[in-house]
Design brief:
five-stranded antiparallel sheet; 68 residues; alpha+beta; 5 strands
């Protein structure tokens, strides 16, 4: 895992990128957690749009994503 600190709404947020993705590429998604949400962003565009999911939605999404 590769960890990248940042700030979300003034709070420290630690983004995690898969260990399958190295600092030199390939790029992939990064995930961070806050008190009540899971944040997902594209590592190629860290200031771009993000998905914000409730923990239950994230839990439902993981089996789908791991199967593809």
């Amino acid at each position: 895992m590769i960890r990248k600190p940042s700030r979300e709404d003034g709070r420290a947020t630690e983004w995690i990128k898969s260990s399958y993705s190295t600092p030199d590429g390939p790029d992939c998604v990064e995930v961070a957690t806050t008190v009540d949400t899971i944040l997902i962003r594209d590592s190629k565009n860290p200031t771009g749009p993000r998905l914000t999911l409730a923990p239950t939605a994230w839990t439902d999404f993981l089996p789908y994503a791991s199967g593809h």
